[in-house]
# Entry
Amino acid sequence: MVSWTEKDPIVSIKDVHKSFGALEVLKGVSLDVMKGEVICIIGPSGSGKSTLIRCINALNDIQGGSIHVRGIDLTDPHLNKLELRKKVGMVFQQYNLFPHKTAIENVMMAPLLVLKENEDEVRARARDLMKKVRLEEKENAYPGELSGGQQQRVAIARSLAMSPDVMLFDEVTAALDPETVKEVLVTIKDLAQDGMTCILVTHEMGFAREIADHIYFTDNGVIVEHGPPETFFTSAKDPRTKEFLSQIL
Amino acid sequence: MAIRPSHPIQKTPTDLPVLKPFQVAPPAFASASHWLANLPPYTSILLFLPLLIWPFASHAAGEFTMLNAFEALLTWIPFLFASGFLFNVLISLFSMLFGTLAGAVLGLGQISKIGPIRRASWFFTQLFRNSPWLVILFIVLLALPFEFVIFGVIITVPDWMKAVFGLSLPIMANISEIVRGAVLSVPTAQWEAAESLAFSRQQILWRIILPQCFKRMIPPWMNWYAILTMATPLCSLLGVEEIITLSRQAMEAENNHPELLVPFYSFALGMFFLYCYPIARLTIRLERKYAVKL
# Structure
């Protein structure tokens, strides 16, 4: 473990390059996230937002630059991916719950099998988390019996059960019905208010404006513009940002 | 079933991509079971029909009539069933057991992260999937010694054990493909979700992927069991005393009258049909039940 203190960024991304074959998706992206910060990454489809946050828990590897999470160097060839992923939770657009397990089993699985924790303690914690995402009455439902919004909240609880230091949200409301989007956003907001470090890729501009400490706008593999939400949404300077915002807002 | 447009198709030429009416293809696996299960149940009666009409259709010149042939069959039936057909079933069960165990290992080998293991598993799978079963059986029979000496103790290997070994090889290869296909049928998103929860590769495979695709493997697995059972008479060529070998011996004991051939072989045919037909029907039912819902 490399020395890391609370004064250093918990996630530090420096000049990251990522290609899929001949297609360069990230062309030198840098950003820092401090502990407890909530940052939102916005931008048009195909601009590399999702690829970027998938690099943070090593689901994608990078070809250039560096990423450090809590001082762990992700470009280290001897990187212990499992140790890294214990500290970084991720929630996906398509929820990806395990369909053969009930909601609470989904939440309990990783702490039991990965952290080898005591079952009673894990169950108690899983119950608390199910309550936190307001699904305590759906504990024994299978994913197929839950709505999209409910599944997504179970997925959030499942990631939280590992007590991660950083949570990654990859367009988590993009697959949801408009009326269920809100319940998921409220859950994330609660989480942010509890001081969880969150990195969100999102298309929900109003939500980003409300909860983000910092907004990054990416286009074509680079960060075009960034800043705190007030200045970002009211006085964007780059023409690409302006055009994007004018289409969305 | 074809999907038909509910309104007349306009014949205006267009270069826009058009979705043409298409045929929904049945799943590629379990085709033998499909064929068998689609036979109407009265097929079994039809199979025994030669037994019934043969006496009237052929007028034997000799004094040995078809009725005599029938009487001969009736006296042999308990023996042919108990010592013959049940032995075929036993061979099929053992072959299936070993073939399944080895096939599961080989199938997991095919998705191994370790290159040499993956390539070797692929090679043996393809080798035994694409070889005639009879050739495999002959090679096993001739290549394996008829006895082993372990610590000075001589252990003789009966021919039927060699047959079990020989039949389990193609089963192994086909089960290997079933396992590989089933694992690959689980969406990669499940792997990613589990990876991001810090599960190890082994945990992902055993705790998340295999439990999800286990049911999907059952229908094709049963299909191969039915095919295997129907292939067990091949063992008669190796001298294994199963139903066909015993039928031939019984006919010899009855002085090899040609009138015996149809009743005796029809009996064998009927036994296999009665055994395999319910398996095929069950396979189709499970296949529908466990079909991947998209």
Q: What stands out?
A: The longest strand of chain A covers residues 23-33. Residues 178-193 of chain A form the longest helix (16 residues). The domain at 11-248 of chain A is CATH 3.40.50.300 (Rossmann fold).
